[in-house]
Specification:
With 228 residues, chain A is an alpha+beta fold. Helix content of chain A is 21%, strand content 18%. Chain A has helices at residues 18-26, 34-38, 75-79, 105-109, 153-165, 178-182, 199-204, and strands at residues 4-9, 47-53, 60-66, 85-87, 93-95, 116-117, 146-147, 188-192, 209-210, 222-225. In chain A, the strands form 4 sheets. Chain A has a 4-stranded mixed β-sheet. Chain B contains 17 helices and no strands. With 480 residues, chain B is mainly α. Chain B is 72% helix and 0% strand. In chain B, helix 12 (279-310) packs parallel to helix 15 (354-381). The relative contact order of chain B is 0.16. Chain B has helices at residues 6-23, 27-53, 68-79, 81-92, 99-123, 132-136, 142-162, 166-175, 182-191, 199-232, 244-271, 279-310, 313-324, 328-347, 354-381, 396-419, 425-450. The two termini of chain B are 35 Å apart. Classes of the chains: A alpha+beta (228), B mainly alpha (480).
Chain lengths: 228, 480
Amino acid sequence: MPRWGMVIDLDKCTACQSCTVACRVENNVPIAGQRDSDEGRAIFWNEVIPVIEGEGRHIKGRFIPRPCMHCENPPCVQVCPVGATFKDPEGIVRQDYERCIGCRYCTVACPYGARYFNWRAPEFAETHASYRNPDAPARPRPVGVVEKCTFCVQRSERARRRAAAEGRALRDGDVVPACVQTCPRRARFFGDLDDERSQVYRLARSPRAFRFLEELGTRPQVIYLMEG
Amino acid sequence: MGAIGPVEAFRRRLEERALAPLTRTGRGYYLLVGGLLLVVAWGLYAYTSQLREGLVVTGMRDRIMWGLYITLFVLFIGISHAGTLISAILRVTNAGWRAPITRMAEFITVVALMVGALMPLVDLGRPDRILNLLLYGRWQSPVVWDLLSITTYLTGSVIYLYLPLIPDLALCRDRLLQGAPRWRRRFFRVASLGWRGTPRQRRLLGSAIGMMMVLIIPVAVSVHTVVSWIFAMTLREPWDNPMFGAYFVAGAIFSGIAGIILLMALLRKIYRFEEYITARHFVNLGYMLGAFVLIMIYFNVSEYLTTGYKMNEEVAFHFRQLFAGELAPLYWFYLLGGLLVPGLLILLPATRSVAGIVTAAVLVTLGMWAERYFIVVGGLRVPLMPYEAASYAPTWVEWSIMAGAFAGFGLIIALFCKLFPLIAVWEVAEHHEEEAVRVPRRVALAWAMTRPEGPERAGAEWPEPVANLEDTPVLGGGRR
């Protein structure tokens, strides 16, 4: 059984936000209008967070692409009263939109801010109808539930079906989430963190590798490579 | 009619007074209930707009996902501690003066729990899926701990309210014969469970109350501890605090005492209970309130000194928002208006009057509302990842639902006033009869012992045994 993980190289990232756009289209994440966005209600399964460091002449801008960290020890899963969020056998933190009661305890518990609540029923513009992803796991979520990045679980399902049809096991690089596929600088890598031959296995052991809020003990499965 | 003793006269007057609200209903009452109903209806209307459009109609947002509803949840569950504290703790310690106020305190507990438990439901994104809590409930989640502890507490409080009511319900059954509507007589007949006041019944009731009062105290303490654990079980910096349970329980009892003082003052005024609820009750509860002011100050100092001494980044953010930033008005109001001024009002003899203590109780209630608010919102505002700090302000929907919740609280209390005696008649009468026997004996004994000749010669000068009781304030009138 693979243990999916992602590596993001901050040295390569140009903060172009292609990942955010690709994710939005792939996963039918509704586009928030101006008003909701201004009020701080905009769903981002993947967000590029700007960070300003230092001041005066030594000011520096950094950018951190933030998907869900898919923690090994996820605080959100721990607190859910109804088991609507759970860790699937391949290490992905998933959300059951049919079971979620919308208490938002998971969004409170997540220290990364990777979980989003549907404050209103999602709306999709007529002009975007042809872009809608028909895959079942990506179908639009109803009002009043929490949603989040799934590492494009529909893609790993598809990759597994294809590998089965070709009569072979999954290979490194078979599963490619939308954000990884679209990244123009190839700053993102995806694969099985337990597979010694995978690229993410190697990169996760780089001296530049770190994880956010590591001191909290959440053990994220998204590993960053520090800017040089 | 033959002459009746002062004890009997007291009892008759007490029954008359305590049952008066059940038989006589003035225009003011209908106006009050009508007004409260209007506010509740307005709250319900606001809630329908939330049901229609989703929680987007509230001020909550991606980074501040809990707000006024959760604040009110914590506040109401806190106020519910009034009943347990006043009634169970004072019963356990056998504080006789408690008798006339236990019933009101127990009312507050039950009603505050009912209203408080509704608040998380109002906060749910999918109230239609509430049954999932029973179908898929996970015991690992603090929400489920809350569900269990609050239902246990509510059940326990209802029993604990009901048991001491039985003799009074029987009294209503026996006294409210003329003119009472049939449903009412039937209600009292069924609810009094055939109480005749036989020695066996008294013994059974006594042991049942005794058992409940001991059981309910740990349940009450655990309830507010578990409420705090909703917060303390997360990785949010200001909530990540092992003291949180004790802090919440102290705050709960604090706001509970304020709640009972307010209700006591109101009902005493409306139904002229001055003879039974005396200044002494206010002063005694005021002292308890004062003690909790000190406990709350202690908790604040320990929390902010231990975290502020190290002042990590998140704590620094939290301090800025509390002392000088977005939440500063609320925090300073809590410190000065909610702790310092009430403390002084109680401490200074000049203001230690009914009016002063009621003022203190109003301030404490407002201060505790502010405290619950900045705990919930402040905890969520502290960013752990480099997000821009978000702001939160409740919208008209949330304010309306808050008004509706308070009005609903008042409404249920008002309806209770018409169904049950507000003063535990039998307990007050029993206490009075005990005092009537005990006080003169004690006074006499004390008086005799101060005489140099010794007690054996003092007999002739003993004070009249019962006569002087009439003019001493009834409860605790005797110097003990």
